[in-house]
Amino acid sequence: MIVTGIEDLTKSRSRVSIDGEFAFVLYKGELRHFHLQIGEELKEKDYETIMQEILPKRAKLRAMNLLLKKDYTTAKLREKLLLGGYPEEIADIALEYVASFHYVDDQRFALDFIRCHQEDRTRLRMEQDLRGKGISSEVISRAFLAWEEEGGAQDEAGMIRQLFRKRGFDPETATTSEQNREYAFLMRKGFSSDSVRNAIFHSFT
Asked: Which of 23, 57, 164, 202 makes the best surface tag, with the fewest CB within 10 Å?
């Protein structure tokens, strides 16, 4: 293994390439410790020390620190670690570590998200948002089932009435063009077609 690149990222950290490909990010002191220089060989035992001892420990700590500040889905936390210069296999080790303590739990994240937005977002919208955060459809379905089992439910008619008040829309006095515009707006919000039709024609039950 030949060191083919050392690029400064900050005053203290450098991006190291081996055999022409990105390998990892190390501190300047570690570069000196392992005698890493462009064109020089990286010893196998030193590579193993970096990949099996130094980077996994650092990635675990980084993941823990990130989770102290906010919740992350597995996908978003992995993305954060990769952006921080950790190789994929090291990021996966860190994710497995935090998951073992349930510090990162996609279903818990999804359930908390549903609880938080049950009154201002439709189910369809929440499903789309959760998928955008990298959560699988299977996990999302389980989270909604858990939410329903704890008594969760949505009143789409009530949500639509609240939107009407905010937007100053009155179904009784609206013109046809205003009704069509509001219909399209509500459908984009993810409301069911039945709820939208009932709302537009002022036939809440």
From this structure: 202
Both 95 and 134 in one domain: the answer is: no
Same-domain check for residues 6 and 38: yes
Owning domain of residue 136: 106-149
CATH of the domain at 24: 1.10.10.10
DSSP the chain: -BEEEEEESSSSEEEEEETTEEEEEEEHHHHHHTT--TTSBPPHHHHHHIIIIIHHHHHHHHHHHHHHHS---HHHHHHHHHHTT--HHHHHHHHHHHHHTTSS-HHHHHHHHHHHHTTTS-HHHHHHHHHHTT--HHHHHHHHHHHHHTT----HHHHHHHHHHHHT--TTT--HHHHHHHHHHHHHTT--HHHHHHHHTT---
User: Does 205 have pLDDT greater than 80?
Assistant: no
pTM of the model: 0.71
